[in-house]
Amino acid sequence: MKCEIIRDLLPVYCDGLASEETRAEVDRHVAECEDCRERLRLMREAVPDVPKPDIQPMKKIKRSLRLRLALVIGMVCIAVAVGLYNMLVVHPLPISSKGIVIEHYSRMNYGNMLYVYYNGKDESTLDVPKDSKFVIDKENDCVWLDGKKAIWSTKSVNGVITEIKYVPANGVLVREGILCVNIKCDTPFKAVRYNYDFDQWPRPSVTNPYDYTLTLCPCLPFRQDINACLEEGNVFRAEFEGYKCSEGATLTIHCRDKDIVVDLHELAVEEGIFEE
Fold it and tell me: Which of 43, 156, 205, 266 could share a disulfide with 118, CB 3.0–4.6 Å?
């Protein structure tokens, strides 16, 4: 190839833009032609060295961004873990009402009836045989048992009765039985914490019926008060004496979506504890 053609190709050759065939031809020519070889050397020396960019600042920026991202992700994971621990262990949410199944039955002794007296603080009972004649006399505020006023208590001095208190007419006549209510929690959790409020004040009575409250919360089985968790099967078992099931008595189950109100009197009537 002529020197004029090679000299025209040298700039392209030096810039690295020539094809493989062109580069081969130029290499072959400059190997034999001293003049063209000298021109190529001068052209190469004339090309300034382009400094390589300093990428260290970019690496530092990327490293800083990665550390910040890792910190944010770590904080989010910790917040989620604390939230889950609080929700499932410390303050678990109540169970949904869809997971509540209620069953009831009674344990009874049909041999006697039972009249229950309330004085606002204590509860006492008066046994009433099944075949006896029992009358609640609200007009005279007393009860009659086989034609006689039922005595509540007496006071005596030196063996002489000085005061007689009769049973007032503010009680209810119920069978000597117990209403049993089983509340099953349908939940995949193996532990369910319960909070049952049965200590009420002022003392419930016929005019101030019992209103029990129950909260059931599924939770993780560790770090729990074992006495506050249900037994195997996640069943809460409650028993109510007949006199605690007077009209208006309820059991309120607090759920996540709504409250379930169980009418204890209605169940007691259904089980035959009350005679309507």
Answer: 205
Report helix, strand or coil for 84. helix
Measure the CA angle with vertex 131, ends 129 and 136; round to 5°.
70
pLDDT in tens, 197-234: 766 655 665 556 788 899 998 877 665 566 678 877 88
Q: Return d(Cα 145, Cα 166) in angstroms, integer.
A: 11
User: What b/e readout covers 133-165, taking b as 16+ CB neighbours within 10 angstroms?
Assistant: ebebeeeeebbbbeeeebebeeeeeeeeeeeee
Q: Are strands 235-241 and 191-197 parallel, antiparallel or unpaired?
A: unpaired
Three-class SS state of 133: coil
Count of Cβ atoms closer than 10 Å to residue 168 Cβ: 18
- The Cα–Cα gap between 124 and 118 comes to 7
Asked whether the beta carbons of 113 and 174 are under 8 A apart, the reply is yes
For residue 125, give the nearest of 262, 241, 6, 9 by alpha carbon: 241
